[in-house]
Amino acid sequence: MDRVTVQEAAHRLGISQDAVRQRVRRGSMRCDKDDKGRVYVYLDPTNTRPAVVHNAPSDTVHDTSHNELITELRDRIQFLETELAGRKEESRRKDHIIAALTQRIPELEPASEPREYSERPTEHVDRGTTSTTESRKPRWAFLLGDLVSASRRGLGRVRRG
Hints:
about 160 residues, alpha+beta, 3 domains, three-stranded antiparallel β-sheet, 4 helices, elongated
């Protein structure tokens, strides 16, 4: 068993120093402290990571695939940035159209006369007989309504003399 510092144990195991401290607290690693309060951990040489040995051919293949991956990711980022710019432009155009339409709302004039009942004949069934009438209101209501609306329109044009 090797007696090493927390930092050295983290390096050998390939984990963080906090992870080593957690293992010490849980009791999964043996440890002791010196006079100054420094914590030492006991490691079994079989549990540590093997030393990294670089193989030139496999590193070249790894680097090539790594570079291809980076190139692919850069291409995707560029595509997404282009898409985002297009969507922003589309959103800007829509906002412009909405703003133009909302400015026109006050310009629209309300109907000068309230809509009256339809003067088209409609058919309705009254106790099994079919008859054609102009509306459910009596005829005099239409005539009176036409006279009132005509007089309203003509008031501004009539000369008094």
